[in-house]
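User: Fold this, then the next.

Assistant: Folding the first:
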Amino acid sequence: MHDYLLNNLPKQLETPEGYIRLSGPLEHDNIVNGDGLRAILWTQGCPNHCKGCQNPETWSYEDGYLAKIDDLKEELKAFKGQAGLTFCGGEPFVQAKACKEIADWCRSELGWNVWSFSGFTHEIIKEYGKEPWEFLKSLDALIDGPFILEKRDLSLRFRGSSNQRLLKLQSGTGKILSIE
């Protein structure tokens, strides 16, 4: 599984500078994808294709739509009472550069914490490095690992299968502070 996922991470989705490919509109007041009220950014594109995925419509690298990052920032700025932003997908780490730009802006301009889901593990992202590792270092929390249908467990907080972990991270370093 490790090598399979490590080989999928280089399959970055190409977008024009200043854009990100989304699978749907931004959400706000979400309480199921992280602590507190959260804004949610739904990325498009995923190379992992987990059996039983709840969002298979986000797998294609061509579907969804291009969104201008500056427009998304304006939209996020209008959301009141949010504790943070969560990147969902699709696979946010295949658009790591754009996601990092948005994450850093949310932290500095809005004072929000930033979470992301990923079918890749912390270890794989760190081993691969490059833009995905830089994006990970901008996070406060990562829910990592592929969804595995045979390990599905609906009692877990913010996770779908028992192999997935909720990692609290030291922002700026990517260091794991705690594991749930």
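Now the next one, as you asked:
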Amino acid sequence: MLHDPPKTGKAERPSETTRLQTGALLIIAFAVVLFLLVQARFVLISLATAIILFSLTSDVINFIARQRVGPFRIPNTLASIAAMVLIAAALLTLTSILLAQVNTVLVTTLSYAERAPSAVASLFAFLGEDSQLAVFNALQSVEISSYLRGAASQASGVTQGTVLIILFVGFLFAERIWFQTKLLSLVGDEVQAERVGKIIQSIIHRVNYYLLVKTVISAITGAMIFVLAQAFSLELATSLGIITFVLNFIPNIGSIVATALIALVAHVELGDATITLAIFAIAGVIQFINGSIIDPMLMGRALRLSSFGIILSLAFWGAVWGIPGMFLSVPIMVMLLVVCSHVPNLRNVAVLLSREGLPESEKMLDQPIERDLFGQDLRRD
């Protein structure tokens, strides 16, 4: 009849079923991807690090290629080989220094293993003798030797990872000259391929700028911690400076751990709570000024990442890939922010990841990057 109400129940059921099926497939896909990320963590961490190092070398190669030897300019191929040699030498040198410092810390920790529990327990003396004794017994029950063996085994894997990263970077260099051709063939549209290339360049520029600023700030902080430790005649002054430099690449948490570490070492070595408190306060001021004032000032609006998003990224990648995941959390988040900014269906994700809710726009993408990290004009032939 003309006045019969429309039958919408049956039409809605397939739609609800489809949404349920789509949601279930997304959950299954996420679980599979998470499983693969965990199972292949060693290879994926090495690959992610290699890609970041390879992106860093784009400015290095251009810088070397612009140099002249008399009237001749250095060829791009020779510049690529020079950059590859520099990367390999730097990675091997940093790995050897890191392993040497880890070995120093492990040996020194064994020598302090007997007096460390009593030194740490004395910090809780203000809570009463019972609390101090409970802390002492808890620390005495910890098998330090087993943790040290675990740390030594993980440190030995750093060398294998370094060699794998160098191999990955080498193969990426070999494929570098065909990247634009492959991108055009993959996308199938010259205009779209150019747009994808701009997105990739935006990611590379932002990650490179972040790593450059972070390296400078971390080096300054590590040097200041080294001077502080030397001023109080701490035995592990060099190790504390290097460890602080490395830990400062972990956002937020790294500086806290580094500050607590120097205070703990100072208390175990010196055994004076007043001096320990002074060292802790000075180290905290150094970390606060460099990490909370100078670092954001230099970063400016280059990253525009949400602080809460950084914490979530740090927690997720730390749970999936451990400590290496913490180091890679910010570069991965930068990549997600830029990609989601230019995919209409993922624009809301970019809004959540950005600091002010204003992710990168298409207009910003069309603005050319005029200078590289060395301050040289990219428009120059």
